[in-house]
Amino acid sequence: MALRKMARWMDSVDERILEYLDETDGAVTAWEIAHDLEGTTRLRARERCRVLARAGFTVVVPREPLTEKYDITGCGQRYLLGEVDAKHRRPLPAARPPEAVRPGWYAGFG
Q1: Which residues pair with 85 in a beta bridge?
Q2: CA–CA distance, 107 with 109 (Å, rounded to integer)
Q3: What domain count does the chain have?
Q4: What is the CATH number of the domain that holds 37?
Q5: Does any domain span residue 4?
């Protein structure tokens, strides 16, 4: 096994999730991940899969709310092989929804 280059933003369960996604055929739900990985919950698996998606290691396959599926990307597979340094793949923050953004006039721009 190659030496993987973890980053400070990564959690201890992240590598286990990536390994699990790499071993499965196709996308899986957070419930399936939590069921097969001991020590994690569905909510924790979903949260970490979303963080990994913002870093480019997984992809979110939308379905219905709370039943979205997750799959590993090529970048995630290269990370598992030790070819990608996670320090260079920081998760981008999620975009704010329109209702959470203040209008320009609030800050004096409009």
Answers
A1: 5
A2: 6
A3: 1
A4: 1.10.10.10
A5: no
Tell me which residue range forms the domain holding 39: 12-87
Pick from 87, 62, 93: nearest CA to 5: 87
pTM exceeding 0.85 = no
Whether 99 maps to a domain, the answer reads no
pLDDT at position 27: 93
Q: Is the pLDDT of residue 35 over 90?
A: yes
Q: What share of the chain is helix, strand, coil (3-state, %, to 5)?
A: 45, 10, 45
Of the candidates 92, 19, 104, the residue with the CA atom closest to the CA atom of residue 28: 19
Structure tokens at 24: 């499965």
Which pLDDT band, with edges at 50, 70 and 90, does 1 fall under?
A: low
Tokens of 87: 């320090």
